[in-house]
Amino acid sequence: MHTLNVALTGVTGYIGSHIAIALAEHGHWVVGFDNFANSSPAVLDRVATICDTSMPFAELDLADTDAIASFLVTNKVDAVIHLAGLKSVAESVAEPLRYYETNVAGSVSLLKAMEQANVHGIVFSSSATVYDPNQTSPLGEDAVIGPINPYGHTKIMVEQIINNAAAASSLKGINLRYFNPVGAHPSALIGEDPVGTPNNLMPYVMQVAVGMRDEVSIYGDDYATPDGTGVRDYIHVCDLADGHVAAVNALAKISTSDTINLGTGVGSSVREVIAAAERAADRDIPHRVVKRRPGDADMSYADPSRAEHRLGWKAQRTLADACVDHWRWQDQNPHGYTTS
Ligand code: UD1
Questions:
Q1: Which of 96, 146, 260, 269 has its CA 20 to 30 Å from the CA of residue 300?
Q2: Which domain holds residue 48?
Q3: Shortest-distance Cα residue to atom 30 of ligand 1
Q4: Would 229 be classed as within a structural domain?
Q5: How far apart are alpha carbons 156 and 174 in whole angstroms?
């Protein structure tokens, strides 16, 4: 296999750190940058421990086009995996301009830097949140698009920008629409470390399991699902990372741009997630049903067949595997990367 020099934006984030390891395991050379807006420099040491080597890193902001261009040139980068961005739905509703600036203008800045540096491949971190929530799963890539918050709009806008730029130049792009990433590296050295109260289900469940929070609020049990609680497609972050390696390897084969779901195709309910976490942590996890969270769909899971056909990738790990790994990380790092 042809090995590549791959740059990761947002390399110290939850997903970026796992991708860095997967790329290194597949023989690629990894470099990265981050502005630490929502991540810790401690991640770099942990990744170096796992990979047995440290990667070239720079503290850079997406807005700094020229600095990014010279970073790409200096490191002889062949392709970029673009993960840097803001990701809170609630925050995006309260501060839409900050979200459009960072996610959309930041991506344009990156693409301009790539053009300056003659880098012609990009894999973009998009989200299943671009789909209209009012449609029946499984969701294929041709499902109706209709995000319901600024965060989701930024994701579909960047996909569009990449598609247009690819059509007009020698750029090749793959937009990856993630379902719900969970789990952690089995070493327990890296994992998800949310700032403040977690918005997402799995980190919240794990913080209750470790005793940091009292109980899980189940946001409604009157949805049109088998047990009444919301159903999602939880994908192990290491499977997600392997999907990026497959996408980077596929860049050379595609003509302009492509859009591909990364999910398992399996839907799990909130109650099933709590039960799987209870088994992994070997303890009861207190929970209580409360009212629905506005904007939540009853069911969302992927049709992952395009990823298998076009990338030769398929999720290998189960929800139970993800809970075991997420729990090991949470148990050994109850305060995440903060060691105090
Ligand atoms: C959310 C975002 C989505 C983003 C994704 C990142 C919303 C509406 N969507 O997806 O845009 O891409 O995170 O991973 O915020 N739940 C509880 N109690 C909790 C938390 C969640 O019952 O404390 C339920 C939710 O109602 C849902 C499921 O758990 O049914 C998963 O929720 P969450 O982890 O927040 O993910 P999504 O809502 O799917």
A1: 96
A2: 5-183+234-264+310-316
A3: 230
A4: no
A5: 13
